[in-house]
């Protein structure tokens, strides 16, 4: 099948008519969801995944006998996209809210409860007692200047970073004490490098509308709560205002297992260990080559990270070549399963985000998973705890001193030290029942300033190529809520 006219159907059985056959490259959540939507509409689909596991960043691993998420472990409830998908796949009963304890932030001066009314850590009310505790009187006073500034401050430039917007409107303390820890925890990047329109879509438009950044945050939070409340399952713990995420009993990885089972039952051909190294646009159809094998189809869905997607498509669409985004950061996650009964009192709620300038701590975040998810605490029983520490603030994977690049043993030692400090409870090697390190290299998209324009341009070029869809976090924005909503919209548009 190499070269020449694209053959009908997928390479493995070749039975489908060309117009109805689709090839999906990448078996992360975007690729699997695209395949699901296409298959449901009657298209014959083949999915090619480079690794030996499905789900991409929504992965799983077994630590201490527990099946745990190795990547994404929750979803934003600012829209109903993920909850709707979970319900559609029969997982509605498993949707849960995190324990309402909330998270903490570790600042150079000590730990504080993280205010629960922000977007990316930006407060809706600088005088809220929790916000004031983090910022001090002078910080709250400076942040409230936002209300008196013209709405053009932070919105007049076509593109701007998270830092530039926050610093101009609310000052340095909001940036350093609230925004940098949250942005570091979620995006593993310096807020000075991130495009605010990608990581907080609609925020600047809301600022223009409401006249202040605090007002914009309040309006987004209100909209998020309105859209998330119908998704709250009966019996789920109502989340404290601010913990705008949900999860699934059994972990987010169950979404992937159910999707894969559904795809198999619909006759979708699922191929792992198939790293696509060439994509051609031949005679009006598409051709992908993986492990020396050629796959042809009338429709191609590219569901990869940004650098890989542009790298593979620029041969067929040379206009894309100047639009390749930089690779995302290296993030290393250390999971510890420990026997430490003192942790039953959840000393730092659901976990701690670490402000970058905090000395003596290498982790950027710690999730106390058994404090966050009641279903998991039910599985471990009292005294046993699951802690997940993440390393890597986007310094570059080979950067000297990048904690994410340490070897497994060094990361384990760092995790014991950091967990003890952050949770204020000594945790030693003898307390550890099991541990694991998972590395995510380049999996988090790096939405550098100007990325929104890049996305618009990529989408325009790809829309002009017949039978091509490009989906994934690098275009939709990081996070399952964005990826699920955008992928469904892209595929529905072509169906
Ligand atoms: C550590 C971590 C924690 C996260 N936590 C959360 C969270 O709690 N909540 C949340 O909402 N979001 C979270 N995210 C983000 C979220 O997981 C992602 O936005 C989303 O899963 C991206 O999905 P995707 O399908 O676009 O990309 P990916 O999941 O990256 O999938 C791309 C797939 O393509 C495959 N691939 C790559 N190259 C090739 C090739 N040449 N040929 C074939 N296949 C290829 C890859 O192996 C991968 O399976 C987290 C991300 C990471 C890395």
3D structure, described in words:
There is one protein chain. This protein is of the alpha+beta class. Helix content is 34%, strand content 21%. The protein has helices at 29-40, 81-88, 129-144, 162-170, 172-187, 196-199, 203-210, 213-228, 253-265, 306-313, 369-372, 374-380, 408-423, 451-463, 473-476, 480-494; strands at 21-25, 44-48, 60-63, 66-69, 75-76, 95-96, 104-107, 110-113, 118-119, 122-123, 245-248, 269-271, 276-282, 285-290, 293-297, 299-302, 330-339, 351-354, 365-368, 384-391, 432-441, 468-470. It has a 7-stranded mixed sheet with strand order 8-7-18-19-20-17-21, with helices on both faces. The chain has a 5-stranded parallel sheet with strand order 12-2-1-16-22. It is globular. The chain starts with 20 loop residues before the first strand and ends with a helix. Mean pLDDT is 90; it is low at 1-19 and 229-242. Flavin-adenine dinucleotide binds at residues 25-31, 48-51, 56-58, 71-76, 275-276, 303-305, 308, 331, 333, 440, 443-444, 472-473, 478-481, 483. Flavin-adenine dinucleotide (FAD) binds next to α1, β5, β17 and α16. Its EC number is 1.3.3.15.
Give the key terms:
alpha+beta, 7-stranded mixed sheet, binds flavin-adenine dinucleotide, protoporphyrinogen ix oxidase, domain 3, Polyamine Oxidase, Chain A, domain 2, FAD/NAD(P)-binding domain, 495 residues, 16 helices, FAD, 5-stranded parallel sheet
